[in-house]
């Protein structure tokens, strides 16, 4: 089930907190005084819950290091929906000076048959890494690695494989047995990604994820418990709304804006986006629009408009009918995206120059120049 | 089911050849004119069947290279029963100048919970390798490696993992789902052991095994077919009879003679061994004994007595009552084993000097000297 659907389903239930509690997940609210409200993701509820993140914050307050980890299955579809996650990581890294581990999970793409061979995502792995680091990451304290060619990860996965039965994974993921063995074993590889900052660098870990990914956190915590390794903690994120009104998904291109989209495509997608507007300009000027269902408003609030005053002006202008979707808000978001894209591309050049410094293993930079027009 | 039981069960059936044929296995007889009868394993039916080994022989006749591969799960229980396999490999290697790949499958010992951690069999891996190579292997054309620390093997296993479903492995091995995931994934590691001479060195492969191991060959052939890799061929071996009359097994120490057994232990085990002898010497001298059920005779025939004339004299002497089990044959075998052991220990010293040359990766020889009295 999609993350937004899942959250909406859960939020509809009156026993929301009880459900979270069952899984050991708490609302983030109580932690905000400690974390602070300077970051919009925390302030505006994009990060809405956590499991044991208080332990990490307590640790940070004693100047003890920790690690934040998020994987990326290399693919050509990196879009603005993914950026919330990585900008959140950048914020946490800057605030707490923690290490960021970025497994580029080419093995995941392979076992789930998104690609025919493991090697064919090598270039994409480097490209995705460049895009992520161009969000403002410095090479210091970053550990990027391509999973399949990192022997230590495969070794840890093998090591953890004795701590999980097929039946446990089957129950957690709803397998039929007709899946290939690689997808079953991938749970162990993912546990290796999550736990290796702890096993190898003695750093407790926080993993920011969507609520739908929590099953993998639970599987990993199960292994950690059996191995007497400090259990990973987690943060739960709400992602951007899909522009079509349906959940954002790479396989529904009109629902999201890819980093590789050209200006024309971006304009079309945004101009076609679902809003809370009225049928006519006149009607909207008279009655105002509904920001609660508006995807443009959602993108402003969760990502593009960092300033609270600006945000409340947008909210008021929308409600009062002073802002017209197609005349004001959509052109404004288009400009913001194009501007972001331009700055992002500039920062990429700087990242590429130092890309080797971000990686824990040697990389072949020359692939970035081959048959390639994205840089 | 134990190999000897399985063979005996199959041999009892009148449709023996049809069963073998169903699995694509042929008796070795027709191939003997090509292979020759100079080796006792072929001449005396220790190697009794094969799958597609004719293809390897044809290739060898054209001076094309191939690989022979047999794994060894490192443990302290290497015994004379294991030596048939490795001496057969040595013979084939000498005759055909093929490459011998020896994966030391520490990962197997680990996932099947014979040891608590992967690393703890490192020293045993080297020790087992020394014992195997001391059978007369030269470092040339030998590729030994410790499986878990050979990234290429773990990478190939991951690669092959998409070509087998859990259900297929479940059906082949009779799994319940309560096994740990490592044991399921191990099929893919084993396929990597078997196929990597073909994928990485372009050498077709022959695997000598007991008939009970054929299921793993079939699983690997299934992967090879899907990947369009040349399928592994196989040779089927009868192992030594257990001294107790029951199948030989490391977990029944009196059934076998370990390389580490001292003289006193060897004498006890052999003197207690099951023979086809009569209740009294007098009776035996009068009626003769039954070599068909005699474990001592079996050891002579399959391994220790290479000379056919000597063997037929033993057979005759046994039948005619001229040889008395406890007075003639058992002391003779004890002497042979002690002599073999002595020579073997001498050859080990030479092997240790050159051990690094046998391995495809760096090894830490210093572990062989730590808290160690076996060398």
Protein architecture, described:
2 copies of one chain form a homodimer. The longest helix of chain A has 29 residues, at 325-353. Chain A has helices at residues 3-12, 16-22, 32-35, 40-43, 53-61, 80-96, 106-111, 122-133, 151-160, 166-173, 181-201, 214-227, 263-271, 281-287, 295-304, 308-319, 325-353, 355-358; strands at residues 26-27, 47-51, 67-69, 99-104, 142-146, 205-209, 233-237. In chain A, α12 links the parallel β6 (205-209) and β7 (233-237). Helices cover 51% and strands 8% of the residues of chain A. Chain A is an alpha/beta fold and 375 residues long. The first copy, chain A, is globular, with a radius of gyration of 21 Å. Chain A folds into 2 domains: 3-237, HUPs (Rossmann fold, 3-Layer(aba) Sandwich); 253-355, Tyrosyl-Transfer RNA Synthetase (Orthogonal Bundle), CATH 1.10.240.10. In chain A, 45% of the residues are buried. A 7-stranded mixed β-sheet of chain A has the order 1-2-7-6-3-4-5, with helices on both faces. Chains A and B meet through α7, α9, α10 and α11 of A and α7, α9, α10 and α11 of B.
Please give a quick description of this structure.
Two copies of one chain form a homodimer. Chain A is an alpha/beta fold and 375 residues long. Chain A has helices spanning 3-12, 16-22, 32-35, 40-43, 53-61, 80-96, 106-111, 122-133, 151-160, 166-173, 181-201, 214-227, 263-271, 281-287, 295-304, 308-319, 325-353, 355-358, and strands at 26-27, 47-51, 67-69, 99-104, 142-146, 205-209, 233-237.
């Amino acid at each position: 089930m999609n993350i937004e659907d899942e959250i909406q389903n859960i939020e509809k239930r009156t026993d929301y907190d009880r459900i979270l509690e069952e899984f050991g997940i708490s609302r983030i609210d109580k932690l905000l005084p400690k974390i602070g409200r300077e970051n919009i993701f925390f302030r505006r509820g994009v990060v809405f819950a956590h499991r044991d993140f208080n332990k990490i914050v307590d640790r940070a307050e004693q100047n003890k290091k920790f690690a934040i980890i998020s994987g990326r299955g290399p693919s050509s579809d990196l879009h603005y929906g993914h950026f919330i996650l990585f900008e959140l990581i950048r914020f946490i890294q800057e605030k707490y000076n923690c290490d960021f581990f970025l497994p580029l999970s080419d093995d995941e793409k392979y076992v789930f048959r998104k690609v025919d061979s493991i090697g064919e995502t090598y270039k994409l792995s480097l490209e995705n890494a460049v895009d992520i680091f161009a969000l403002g990451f410095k090479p210091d304290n970053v550990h990027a690695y391509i999973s399949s060619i990192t022997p230590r990860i495969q070794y840890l996965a093998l090591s953890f494989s004795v701590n999980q039965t097929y039946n446990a994974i089957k129950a957690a993921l709803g397998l039929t047995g007709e899946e290939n063995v690689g997808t079953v074993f991938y749970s162990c590889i993912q546990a290796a990604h999550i736990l290796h900052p702890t096993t190898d660098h003695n750093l407790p870990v926080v993993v920011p994820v969507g609520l739908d990914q929590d099953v993998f956190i639970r599987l990993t915590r199960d292994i950690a418990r059996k191995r007497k390794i400090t259990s990973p903690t987690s943060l739960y994120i709400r992602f951007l709304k899909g522009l079509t009104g349906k959940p954002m998904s790479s396989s529904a291109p009109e629902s999201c804006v890819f980093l590789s989209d050209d200006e024309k495509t971006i304009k079309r997608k945004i101009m076609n986006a679902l809003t809370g507007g009225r049928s006519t300009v006149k009607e909207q000027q008279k009655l105002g629009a509904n920001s609660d269902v508006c995807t443009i408003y959602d993108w402003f609030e969760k990502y593009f408009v960092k300033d609270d005053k600006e945000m409340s002006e947008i909210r008021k202008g929308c409600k009062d009918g002073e802002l017209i979707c197609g005349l004001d808000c959509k052109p404004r978001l288009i400009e913001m995206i194009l501007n972001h894209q331009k700055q992002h591309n500039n920062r990429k050049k700087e990242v590429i120059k130092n890309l080797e410094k971000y990686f824990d293993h040697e990389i072949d930079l020359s692939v970035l120049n081959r048959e390639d027009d994205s840089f």
